[in-house]
Amino acid sequence: MNMNERELIEVAVGAAYEVANTLGCGFLEKVYERAMIRELTSRGLAVKGQVSYAVTYKGESVGEYFADIVIENFLVVELKCADQFSKEHLAQSLNYLKASGLRSALLINFQHPKVEWRHVVSRF
């Protein structure tokens, strides 16, 4: 699907609201991840779950990150079930962007009845 960044974010956030409205709060992140993948796919988007990105140091692999969801090979989606977003959640999203070479991520929190989300943009 050919969308710009803003449109893609709007569709992803809309999917998160649909998942939250259908499931409610209180489940584990993995349940929301699977539901988000189904919802995003049903909206015609190319979606991958648990995408691995190598972390390199001076040309050698020193580890890997697993992004919860990647949409259209463009937008990383990191799902949380936490009281609130923390600095660690933001740092994790930025590290996913750095490792993947992508520019844009969404942090989505399903802990409360109303979905919380935050757009994170890489400056790398």
Strand proportion:
25-35%
Main β-sheet description: 5 strands, mixed
Distance between the termini: 26 Å
Briefly note the structural class of the backbone.
alpha+beta
Number of helices: 3
What is the 3D shape? globular
State the domain count: 1
Identify the strand order in the major beta sheet: 1-2-3-4-5
CATH class: Alpha Beta
The SSE order reads: HHEEEHEE
Question: Overall pLDDT, averaged?
Answer: 94
Tell me the CATH topology: Lambda Exonuclease, Chain A
The number of strands is 5
Descriptive terms for the model:
124 residues; Lambda Exonuclease, Chain A; alpha+beta; 5-stranded mixed beta sheet
Polypeptide structure, described:
With 124 residues, the chain is an alpha+beta fold. The protein has helices at residues 5-23, 29-42, 87-100; strands spanning 47-57, 60-71, 75-80, 104-109, 116-121. It has one domain: Lambda Exonuclease, Chain A (Alpha-Beta Complex), CATH 3.90.320.10. A hairpin with a 2-residue loop joins strand 1 (47-57) and strand 2 (60-71). Helix 1 (5-23) packs across helix 2 (29-42). The protein starts with a helix and ends with a strand.
